[in-house]
Specification:
Distance between the termini: 41 Å
Radius of gyration: 23 Å
CATH superfamily of one domain: NAD(P)-binding Rossmann-like Domain
Number of helices: 13
Structural class: alpha/beta
Helix content: 25-40%
Number of strands: 17
Bound molecules: nicotinamide-adenine-dinucleotide
CATH class of one domain: Alpha Beta
Largest sheet: 9 strands, mixed
Oligomer: single chain
Strand content: 25-35%
CATH topology of one domain: Rossmann fold
Shape: globular
């Protein structure tokens, strides 16, 4: 795993969205400057662009939006030229297009940019269908261009920490995982495109891709084994018609919760006792089951998420959907406590219970082991959510730009990863629709 690039200043989301954006480079692009064009100047684009403009030798030279006011505002904020979207996508004055329009537009706009020879960083999801995502990946590969979705989760330093803990088996093998997302919908009016599946692709596709990608970063490829969803019944009729959510009968409902379980084959060697014995043969009904729940129904101040990984001898929890901190609760011996605390940023160990003599002998999953204590270990990046969010947005862009500058650069996130997240999301979505 490559180290994350050196820290670059981080701008909070609210600040970048509401205040005059931080000044960006004004200078004419030099020979080494990467010229970025921004298509779609909405809420997230403003946040991301403010961070991109701080990357070394990167300048946002042009912006585009179908809403002239949005384009004007971004142009003024970023000191960039406003262009019609279709002109920007093929402009020879642009090296990389950042597409931050609603999901259903991603395939068409990314294709146009790739065909014109531009590199593409597109907001998640890469596309709203697997066929479209695969087509983009193939087109980028044929042309030797970058075309990834903005799947930022795997750029969080805590994603690395968790991967090291899984691989180290310090808490034993991973048994299962759970992600519970109680998301706010306070900022999503009934007219928002988010509720219109024709535009968003549904919750698994629009939002779930982030977490399919994060778990794939830890466990490799997964397979959807079950899925379902639930609808919110009474949405104001007129607004719902505008959002495309109304049915012919006039009864209006929107998808508000989606659940699915995926199986990851990776732990075929992770459930042994670590005594050097051969891993068991891979059982198609074995592996790690990971459950994903996403609901958009909370007031903003109750927005909350938890990722829980259950191991043979403890569990690890991460909080927030851009995780900033977490906890480990587990049975460990003294050496392991020291090793684990050293792996975790800002760790604080609390001994819950100390064991002596025979108390130290324990069993689980038909295996014996010894532990000297039951401990809680808290850990934190020491940054708030928006600071971490800004950091991962910058890290992903810096990684892709490094690839554009040096074809030998090995990226943390590739086109194949971007497609894989859409593949799982579409499989979960189709199964959820079929099991209604
Ligand atoms: N990576 C992340 O963490 C993250 C977070 C939030 C949103 N997103 C993604 O960003 C994208 C945009 O989301 P948002 O919340 O900013 O939406 P938004 O509605 O605030 O912004 C979308 C913008 O696109 C513009 N637009 C619409 N059609 C266009 C077209 N044909 N050409 C040019 N511009 C057009 C709209 O006028 C609007 O300004 C979505 O794909 C969303 O999933 C990603």
């Amino acid at each position: 795993m490559q180290p994350l690039s050196p820290a670059v200043p981080v701008i909070p989301f609210e600040a970048s969205a509401s205040l005059a954006p931080a000044p960006c480079r004004v200078a004419r692009p030099g020979n080494h400057t990467l010229r970025v064009g921004l298509v779609g100047c909405g809420a997230f684009a403003r946040f991301a662009a403010a961070h991109y403009s701080r990357l070394p030798d990167v300048t946002i030279t042009a912006v585009a939006d179908v809403d002239p006011a949005a384009a004007r505002r971004a142009a003024a904020d970023l000191e960039a030229e406003p262009l019609p979207p279709d002109d920007l996508l093929v402009s020879p004055e642009i090296d990389m297009v950042y597409i931050a329009t609603p999901p259903a537009l991603h395939h068409r706009q990314a294709s146009a940019a790739l065909l014109a020879g531009r590199h593409v960083l597109v907001e998640k999801p890469l596309a709203t269908t697997l066929a479209d995502a695969e087509e983009l990946e193939a087109l980028a590969a044929r042309r030797g261009l970058v075309c990834v979705a903005n799947l930022v989760e795997r750029y969080n330093p805590l994603a690395d920490v968790v991967r090291r803990i899984i691989d180290s088996r310090i808490l034993g093998g991973l048994v299962h995982g759970l992600f519970i997302n109680e998301a706010a919908d306070e900022g999503l009016s009934p007219r928002h495109w988010f509720w219109n599946r024709d535009i968003s692709g549904g919750i698994f596709v629009e939002h779930g891709v982030h977490f399919f990608d994060l778990v794939a970063f830890w466990l490799g490829a997964g397979q959807v084994v079950s899925a379902c969803r639930s609808m919110r019944p009474a949405v104001d009729g007129e607004a719902a018609v505008a959002s495309g959510a109304a049915t012919e009968t006039g009864r209006v409902s929107v998808e508000e919760q989606v659940f699915c379980t995926c199986r990851y084959a990776v732990p075929c060697g992770m459930t042994t006792s670590g005594d050097g014995s051969q891993p068991p043969a891979c059982d198609p009904h074995g592996g790690v089951l990971f459950h994903f729940e996403h609901g958009f129904h909370q007031p903003s101040r109750m927005d909350r998420q938890e990722m829980r990984l259950v191991f043979e001898r403890g569990e690890l929890r991460l909080f927030d959907w851009v995780p900033t901190h977490g906890e480990i609760h587990g049975l460990l011996d003294d050496d392991a406590v020291g090793v684990l605390a050293g792996m975790l940023p800002g760790s604080e160990v609390r001994t819950v219970q100390r064991y002596e003599g025979d108390e130290r002998r324990m069993r689980g999953r038909f295996q014996s082991f010894e532990a000297t204590s039951l401990v809680d270990i808290g850990f934190t990046l020491g940054m708030n959510k928006l600071e971490v969010y800004g950091l991962v947005v910058q890290e992903l862009a810096a990684d892709q730009i490094a690839r554009i500058r040096d074809p030998g650069h090995v990226r943390r996130l590739t086109e194949i990863d971007s497609v894989a997240s859409v593949a799982l999301a579409c499989a979960a979505d189709q199964l959820a629709m079929a099991t209604q």
